[in-house]
Amino acid sequence: MKITVLNGSPKGELSVTMQSVAYLAKIYPQHEFTILHIAQRLKRLEHDRAAFDTVIDQIRESDAVLWGFSLYILIVHAHYKRFIELIFERGAHDAFAGKYTAALSTSIHFFDHTAHNYIHAICDDLEMRFVDSFSPDMHDLLTEEGRKQLTQFGRQFLEAIENQVPTQRQYPPLISRAFSYQPTLPSAPVSTAGKKVVLLHDANLADSNLAHMVARCRSAFAGEVRVVNIHDLDMKSGCLGCLECGANYECAYTGKDGYIEFYTSTVMTADVLVYAGRMVDRYLSARWKMFFDRIFFNTHTPVLVGKQVALVIAGPLGQVPNLLEIFRGFFAFQGANLVGVVSDESGDSADLDRLLDQLMARALNYAQAGYLRPQTFLGVGGMKIFRDDIYGRLRMIFPADHRAYARMGLYKTFPQAALGTTLLNTFVVPIINLPPIRKKFDKLIKAQMVQPHKLVVAKYTN
Ligand SMILES: Cc1cc2nc3c(=O)[nH]c(=O)nc-3n(C[C@H](O)[C@H](O)[C@H](O)COP(=O)(O)O)c2cc1C
Question: In angstroms, what is the span from residue 384 Cα to ligand 1's centroid?
Fold first, then answer.
């Protein structure tokens, strides 16, 4: 059978993910795996229609498609995203319809599930027959168990194609409502009172819901607001995945375009950040994705700590919970506070006016109050992945992160760094676990757990 592999790594031939595909090709020599370097060749595919059509013809002639990609900022690389947009924009969707498909990524498991949700949903939108997702760690191929499971994944996929197994659509089609937003209510601007507000957006049409939402957000503030259309930013291209940034945050683009200067001087110094975007398929635009990918010049160091973030979305956000999860995870990792989200998917223009005014006022209010919600699982769990990997196996590649994590006290959250707990676990726990003591201890657990909290509360209520 002919399997076309769409490579989503900007590294092309040097992709780690593609080594898993090369392995599959070796153990299943009776099948033909053809790798197309989509992310690396995006510029060509976008500007040379014949090159794009060759890719589509290749897909048309194949028995199945394997989406092979690396994780890039909680989803796929901007160039891969753009390729997906091109499929829909250029009406090439029929080449994919009815084809068997599967997804194979490599990553460090930071929001790999949201990337896979996205690709699966795109396959459903393309009316493909989705068989399976396989998301190993970037080093799993180096282990016997990793190779064994990859072999199984390949076998399941190939057999599903051969046996034409039935598949079911998991993600319902998106329904966009026909609604034209026109700000109607008089605005009552709130003073920025010394807080720096930055509003980033990608509105490409002056008379669009997004453009009107951006205008409404701007008018909610009295005082200076920096409004930037990210289409106007001097951003040459997407992240190269070269990792030159690891040692000292020196990006391959440093001094070559305006992104880093803009990000450090405008975004990283803001108190309130408003991100306004229109949904394109099941994410924002590829331009937004490029903006997010390029943040990697800071590698894994959070640089938006304590900032208030408001999201303003044009599109059916409520139908794509995956997108909100991506934002929640991203801003949690960055240490920012996601104040709230407003989309144009419900209500009339007056409702939207009120919602946008309220969101902007709330963001400002939170900034003034220094309000930061506690992290949820997304932030707490995600940070532990980075902490462990930067302390351990990734330290050699990302020494700048290592220095930052030490400075930020992140390594103090290792359980073994808490001396009191270690002493307790070493000397006291064995005694407590002696059966007669344990029996008595178990009866006291509830009261003992709540005791320190009671003491704190007592201190403030007496
Ligand atoms: C800019 C950039 C962003 C990344 N974002 C993520 C991420 O969000 N989650 C994750 O688990 N890994 C992330 N990674 C790690 C890569 O996905 C991982 O190293 C992968 O194996 C690279 O595969 P490739 O060589 O095929 O590109 C990122 C790497 C880079 C360079």
Answer: 17
Q: How far does residue 72's CA lie from ligand 1's centre (Å)? A: 5
How many angstroms is it from 103 CA to the middle of ligand 1? 15
Smallest CA separation from ligand 1 atom 16, residue: 107
Residue list, ligand 1 pocket, CB within 6 Å: 9, 11, 15-17, 70-74, 106-112, 138, 239, 241, 293, 296
At 352, phi and psi to the nearest 5? -65, -40
Close Cβ partners of 364 (under 8 Å, ≥ 6 residues apart): 190, 192, 193, 195, 197, 221, 272, 308
Pocket test for ligand 1, best of 108, 111, 331 (most atoms within 8 A of CB): 108
How far is CA 13 from each of CA 50, 68, 84, 135, rounded to the nearest angstrom?
A: 22, 12, 21, 20
Q: How far apart are CA 389 and CA 167, in angstroms?
A: 37
Give CA–CA dist 171/437, Å, rounded. Answer: 54
Structure token pair of residue 271: 């108190």
DSSP β-bridge partners for residue 155:
none
Identify the three-state secondary structure at position 337.
strand
pLDDT tens-digit map of 59-106: 999 999 999 999 999 999 999 999 999 999 999 999 999 999 999 999
Residue 257 burial by Cβ neighbours in a 10 Å radius (0-12, 13-18, 19+)? middle
- Contacts of 347-350 with C-beta under 8 Å, sequence gap 24+, read 349/181, 349/182, 349/183, 349/184, 350/184, 350/185
Distance of CA 441 to the CA centre of its chain: 44
Which CATH entry fits the domain spanning 190-377: 3.40.50.2300, 2.60.40.10, 3.40.50.360, 3.30.428.10? Answer: 3.40.50.360
Fold for 2-162, please state it: Rossmann fold (3.40.50)
Query: Ligand 1 atom 4: the closest Cα is on which residue?
Result: 72
What pTM did the predictor assign?
Answer: 0.97
Q: Per the structure block, which two tokens stand in for 179?
A: 């609604």
User: Counting atoms of ligand 1 from 1, which one is nearest the CA of 74?
Assistant: 8
Question: Closest ligand 1 atom, CA of 17?
Answer: 26
- Looking at residue 462, its pLDDT comes to 58
Task: Using 50 as the pLDDT threshold, list the residues of the chain that sit under it.
Answer: none
- C-alpha to C-alpha distance for 170 and 377, rounded to whole angstroms: 25
CA of 75 to the centre of ligand 1 (A): 9
